[in-house]
Amino acid sequence: MRIRSDLKIVIFLIAVANVGHPGIVSAHEPLFGLGPHTVGQFAWALESEFERSHGVWANHFELIYGITPDFAVTAALPYVFENEDGEPGFADLGIRGKFRFYRRDYLNGSDGFALHWGIKFPNGNRLENRGSGTTDYLLGLSFGRESRKHYAFADVRYQIKGSLENLKRGNAIHFDVAYGIRPLQLEYLQPDLVLLIEILGEVRSKNYLNGTEDLNSGGSIISIAPGFLLSYRNVMIKGGVKFTLLENLNGLQDKPDAELVFGVEFHMPPFK
Question: Where is 7: in which H helix or E strand?
C-alpha cells in the first residue's frame, strides 16, 4: 500500500525531532498554559507532542527560534490522525511570538514576565474536522518563578476568533495557575524530574448566527491537570492529563472530555 505524501512528511518530521544534541538544558514550563522562558539568542528547539482533545488525536510539531535572548518565535503545525469526521492530514498552522520584558535572577532562582501573541491560519480542511475555517488571534501575559526545588506559573490569554460566513464565533479568555516541585535535587548529568499541577479556566462568549445570539454556546469551564517533566541535558519528555472540575455551559453543548498530552522536546545550540 502506497504511503500518502503528507504521512511521509510526518515520518520525516518525527525523525528530525528525534535527533538530539547534547549541551543545552530544557526549559520548565506548564503543559497546558504559558510561561515566560525563552530559548536564548539564535538557539532553537524542536518538539513533537501527541494530544487528544475533543475526541481527536493529533501530533503537534513545533519549531522555536530565539531571535534575541528575550524574544522567540514558534511555528506550530498539527497533524490530525484519522477520525470519524474525516481523513488524516495537517490542520491549522499557528505562529506565536514571546517577549520576556522582565527577568530577575537571584541565588538558586529566577523570576520572569512575558508578553505573548499569535495568529492561527485557516489552512486546515474544515469539512474533515482539521480546521476552524477562520483566522484567529491570541494575546497573553505570563509569569514564572523557578527555584532549585519549586516552580510557580500564571498566565492569562485572550483568544480572538474570526467569523465564518454568517457565523461570528465568540471570543474566549483563558487562565492558568501552576505549581511544580522537583522531588529529587539531582545534578546536571542525571535525569531531572519535575511534577506539576495546573488549575485552568476558560470563559467563552456566545456565538452569533446571522446576527442572532446562539443560546447553545458560550459558558465557563474550570479544569485541573496533573503532569510531569522529565529532562536529561537538552532532551525533555513530558506528559499530563486535564480533567474538568466545574462547567457551566449555556444551553445544549457537548460536555468537555479529558485532554491528554505526551511529548518530547529537544533544545539545540545557537544557529545563525
Answer: helix 5-17
The pTM for the full model equals 0.86
Strand partners, 89: 80
Q: For the residues 184-191, what does the mean pLDDT come to?
A: 77
| 103-112 pLDDT per residue, tens | 999 988 899 9
> How far apart are the C-alpha atoms of 208 and 218, rounded to whole Å?
10
Mean pLDDT of all residues in 60-71 = 95
DSSP string for 82-141: PBTTB--EE---EEEEEEEEEEEEETTEEEEEEEEEEEE---S-TTTTS--SS-EEEEEE
- How far is it, in rounded angstroms, from Cα 143 to Cα 208? 34
- Residue 87 CA to residue 6 CA, distance in Å, equals 11
Three-state DSSP class for residue 236: strand
- Residue 157's DSSP bridge partners are 140, 174
Q: Scanning the structure block, which residue is given the C-alpha cell 477520525?
A: 83
User: Distance between CA 168 and CA 186 in Å, rounded?
Assistant: 51
Helix (H, G, I), strand (E, B) or coil at 10: helix
C-alpha cell at 214: 446562539
2: pLDDT strictly greater than 60: no
User: Please, which pLDDT band fits residue 126 given cuts at 50, 70 and 90?
Assistant: confident
DSSP-assigned letter for residue 188: T
